[in-house]
Amino acid sequence: MGIALGIYIVMISVTGSAIVFRRELNIWLVPRTVPSTAGTRLTGDELLAAARRAYPDDEVKTVREPRRPERPVSVTIERDGRINERLFDPYAGVDMGHAYPPTLRFVEWLVDLHDNLLAGSTGRFVNGVAGILLTVLFMTGAIIWWPGRRRWRQSMTTGPPEKSRRFAWRLHSTLGFWSFALLFVWAITAVYFAFPEPVEAAIDYFDSDLTDVIRPGEPVLLALIQLHFGRFGGLWVRSLWALLGLLPAVLFVTGFVLWWSRVVRRRWLAAAERQASVA
């Protein structure tokens, strides 16, 4: 199952880590305020004329003025049939950059790939099925990990690094042990995102009063969702989540190395021995 899901695991792992800073990138890349509110704020026809001067090679389609004086103006322009939205300083009369920069477009593309596999509701359904398979994979991995009562402490560390299948197994085993809880949360919440109806129905079933605000089990569900996205703490939590998000990919690589040496390489060696004996 791990080999079959390998490419999917790597894709979900890498894209999940890449979109951890989605909200921060939006804040960092899109100006929310003008550099200075000193002077006269242009409005109406004066603002439209200033926008046309700032974009002489484009056709100014719309100018949207915000209510707050410190906010930039949104200007929609068109050139060669392509629509572009820019931010405009109504005090200085200068362009402030993209309202929706290419970097954010790429991040949103990654979000769609991570959430829906670029296939809408069908991709979301496939993600839910894959989440179920990953849950089974993690559970069976936990069972396989158990080395016995005498050696379980040794399986919690990798030991000194070395170029061997034994070290690959210990690395795979150690990473799997320490990351099991988080990986399990990621897997089951992925199932919930794809199939929320059964969970919501179960919560309603145990709710004696459907008209109240508090629902049984909902705080646990919300906590699991926060854990999935790393939506708690500060920037250091997001940085840690971006790093931890690569663990499934690392586990796949180490698992693939183990599978290759244990299965494929042994078959090749056995075939080579048979050919040598025949010769």
Break the fold down into its secondary structure elements and pairings.
Layout: H1 6-18, H2 22-29, H3 44-54, E1 59-64, E2 73-79, E3 82-89, E4 94-98, H4 102-116, H5 120-145, H6 165-194, H7 196-205, H8 218-229, H9 235-244, H10 247-278
Antiparallel strand pairs: 1-2, 2-3, 3-4
What does this structure look like?
- The protein has 279 residues and is α+β, with helices and mostly antiparallel strands.
- It is built from 10 helices and 4 strands, in the order H-H-H-E-E-E-E-H-H-H-H-H-H-H.
- It has a 4-stranded antiparallel β-sheet with strand order 1-2-3-4, covered by helices on one side.
- Helices cover 60% and strands 9% of the residues.
- Helix 2 (22-29) packs antiparallel against helix 4, helix 6 (165-194) crosses helix 8 and helix 6 (165-194) crosses helix 10 (247-278).
Nearest-angstrom radius of gyration?
Answer: 27 Å
* Count of beta strands: 4
The largest sheet, given as strand count, sense and whether it forms a barrel, is: 4 strands, antiparallel
Kindly report the oligomeric state of this protein: single chain
Q: Please write the string of helix (H) and strand (E) elements.
A: HHHEEEEHHHHHHH
Helical stretch tally: 10
Largest sheet strand order: 1-2-3-4
Strand content: 5-15%
Distance separating the two termini: 38 Å
Low-confidence spans: pLDDT under 50, at least 5 residues?
none
Round the mean pLDDT to the nearest integer and report it.
Answer: 90
